[in-house]
Amino acid sequence: MRLILFGPPGSGKGTQAKLLAEKFRIPHISTGDLLREAVAGKSPLGLQAKGYLDAGMLVPDDVVIGLIREVLTTGIAKDGFIMDGFPRTIPQAQALDRLFGELHVRVDGVISLRVEHDEVIRRLTDRKVCRSCAKIFNSNQLHADDPSRCPECGGELYQRSDDTPETARKRLDVYLKETKPIKDYYRESGRFTQIDGMRDIADVYEEIVTILRKPIS
User: What's the whole-model pTM score?
Assistant: First the structure.
């Protein structure tokens, strides 16, 4: 199973990616995670990335593609993958397609979660993150007797500094500006499906699984 998952910040794509990765027993490829792991491991690409990050610059596409290549050419991705948060630009999508062609990888689906803008802002400003297990929760999922503690592991919960209404709107604006051309790019190739991400986690998950189980034309 090979899937590219899109969605605005707060759409729940990270949650869906983890659920799908568990179901199909395939890696969840997050470029942010790849960069952090490469920098921590001091790999050649990680050292390149660190230089840009330390200078406050964006990591070049060729470095990110190189990290993705490393994952796709290891045994961990032999049965597929779920890619989350990449590509974000047309050049990145084209570079990714070239990599897929070189490695003879066929993508089973490109799925986008559609969430109303007001709901994105509400979700982002409502969520809390556990310092221990890094899981994300909204206020409805917290224990009423102690909403400052993770309901899973008991760790301390905190709100990210960028989960404010102003910052959330800026993140949403950037996403909308960057990803619309990407959606059109994948629509033209017949690989794109958009679904309603406003529903319960379980309903969204079941629809994605149903889409992925359809035969590829």
Answer: 0.80
H helix intervals, the chain: 13-24, 31-41, 44-54, 61-72, 90-103, 117-126, 165-188, 201-213
Active site residues: 13, 88, 127, 160, 171
Write out pLDDT tens, residues 44-57: 998 988 888 888 78
DSSP annotation of 58:
P
State the residue for tokens 């629509």. Answer: 187
Range of the domain at 96: 2-115+197-213
**pLDDT, tens digit (0-9, with 9 covering 90-100), for 56-86:** 787 889 999 999 999 999 888 888 999 987 8
Whether 50 is in a domain gets the answer: yes
Side-chain-side CA neighbours of residue 3 (13 Å): 26
Domain assignment of residue 40, yes or no: yes
Asked if residue 141 lies in contact with residue 147, where contact means CB atoms within 8 angstroms, the answer is no
Whichever domain contains 70, its CATH number is 3.40.50.300
Q: Indicate whether 175 belongs to any domain.
A: no
Decide: 113 and 198 in contact? Cβ < 8 Å. Answer: no
* 60 prior amide bond cis, ω within 30: no
Residue 59 belongs to a domain: yes
HSE of 13 in the Cβ direction (CA atoms, 13 Å)?
26
* Per-residue buried b or exposed e for 18-31, using 16+ beta carbons within 10 Å of the residue's own CB: ebbbeebebbbbbb
Count up the domains in the chain and report the number: 1
